[in-house]
Amino acid sequence: MSEEPVAPKPTSEAPLAAPPAEEPSPPPEDWAVKYRYLLADFENYRRRTEREREGVTRQARAGLIRELLPILEAFRAAREAVASLPQNDPVRHGLDLLEREWSTFLKHEGVVPIAEVGQPFRAEEQEAVGDTGTRDGVPDGAVAEVVQQGYRFYGGILRPAKVVVAHTRAPAPVESESPSTEAA
Question: Do 102 and 143 fall within a single domain?
Answer without folding.
Answer: no
